[in-house]
Amino acid sequence: MAPTVCFNCKEARAVIIRPKNRHKLCRACFIQIFETEVHETIIGTKLFFRGERVAIGASGGKDSTVLAAVLKTLNERYDYGLNLCLLSIDEGIRGYRDDSLETVKRNAVQYEMPLEIVGYGELYGWTMDQVVAQVGKKGNCTYCGVFRRQALDRGAARLGIKHVVTGHNADDVAETVMMNLLRGDLPRLSRGTSIVTDSDASDIKRSKPLKYAYEKEIVLYAHHRQLDYFSTECIYSPEAFRGSARTLIKDLEKIRPSSILDIVKSGEDMAALVPVEVRGSGKSKHAGAEDESAGGCGSQNGRSSGGEMAAMEKQLTENDAAESRETEIKLPVATSKKSKPAKPAKQIKGQTMGHCERCGYISSQRICKACTLLDGLNRNRPKTAIEVGMEDEEGSSTLMRQMERAQLGAT
Ligand SMILES: Nc1ncnc2c1ncn2[C@@H]1O[C@H](COP(=O)(O)OP(=O)(O)OP(=O)(O)O)[C@@H](O)[C@H]1O
């Protein structure tokens, strides 16, 4: 059988079936198209300004590695005039983050970008290994997510940088839409769909330039550009709810590849209907610094990783077969029973953002989530560990002093 030619250039041999639309492309066209789409997102949303210093939240995983590679390419190709650097958070997970940080260190050399590493241990007095030893695996992602969001902000503040970009992709955003739809949390849904989350109370802006990029295409891009990334998944158990939303979306994607972008777009449309005071922001102003989608992780459950290239190709073939199985399901027509009057819509309270009384981090509560979690951890800390942390007479812990120092750095 003659090889299929590229849908785009009509010359080279097609080696990729685009997950987004099933176009068959050659390697060069796929790379070019992927980069152009990210460029269009950046330009269309006026994401950066010339001369801006931008920190790339770099975990060493495929998404942030691709983000760093693409931003470097686009910055040079289109002369954005950005000053890029890598910012990594060391959660203190031995056998996982220490290895992935080695990848980030190599990336820093490969992309000629400075690298800053900020650790939970130094910021909070707790590594994730210690947190898990204390609270167990269940629910540990909550600690990690809350701590990471603050750590990214504090790391950026330390560098004097006001814009952090993360590798959140279209699949991540679709999951967030789905989860918040199922929870009935419209304010969070609307904030999660926004490409930029910034706040009046914090001067660090966060954005997701890969918001419209499919996870599978990110893997293909990394593979075809032979990027150096770390593909092992976090050793601690994932958040079950996000994992279920992910499985649901992946199943939908098999039947209808555009599902991911469709969910993202539907999320954007729903967000546009949410009044500013309910959403908690104008152009996502006040977008909670504590929102779950903003700082990374989510769970790794069901996630594609670097070693899945063969499985992905197989999956794409299955997608073709799945399309022919698509059937329309008709709901029974409602009979003429008297319908109950609709309940008045629930009033959704808007969030008022302020600062945490303890650490000064942006929060809608008197004490931010991180400090609340730390309170619980410190209360139950084994005595010996407390003694290490309680050096001064007023009982002010090392942790608190570290947080105060971090806060000074953040303001
Ligand atoms: N330890 C970290 N240090 C810096 N940034 C991080 C860290 N963990 C996550 N992030 C940022 O948050 C984004 C989403 O993280 P998450 O762990 O959900 O995703 P992922 O899809 O596995 O991303 P990646 O492939 O980049 O690891 C990452 O792409 C990265 O930009």
UniProtKB/TrEMBL annotation:
Record-linked InterPro entries: CTU1-like_ATP-bd, CTU1_C, Ncs6/Tuc1/Ctu1, Rossmann-like_a/b/a_fold, TilS/TtcA_N, tRNA_thiolation_TtcA_Ctu1
GO cellular component, one term: cytosolic tRNA wobble base thiouridylase complex
Name used for this protein in its record: Cytoplasmic tRNA 2-thiolation protein 1
GO biological process, one term: protein urmylation
Location of the Cytoplasmic tRNA 2-thiolation protein 1 C-terminal domain: 354-384
Pathway the protein contributes to: tRNA modification; 5-methoxycarbonylmethyl-2-thiouridine-tRNA biosynthesis
Binding-site residues, ATP: G57, A58, S59, D63, I89, G167, D172
Localization terms from the record: Cytoplasm
Function: Plays a central role in 2-thiolation of mcm(5)S(2)U at tRNA wobble positions of tRNA(Lys), tRNA(Glu) and tRNA(Gln). Directly binds tRNAs and probably acts by catalyzing adenylation of tRNAs, an intermediate required for 2-thiolation. It is unclear whether it acts as a sulfurtransferase that transfers sulfur from thiocarboxylated URM1 onto the uridine of tRNAs at wobble position. Prior mcm(5) tRNA modification by the elongator complex is required for 2-thiolation. May also be involved in protein urmylation.
Family the UniProt entry places it in: Belongs to the TtcA family. CTU1/NCS6/ATPBD3 subfamily.
UniProt keyword annotations, A-Z: ATP-binding, Cytoplasm, Nucleotide-binding, RNA-binding, Transferase, tRNA processing, tRNA-binding
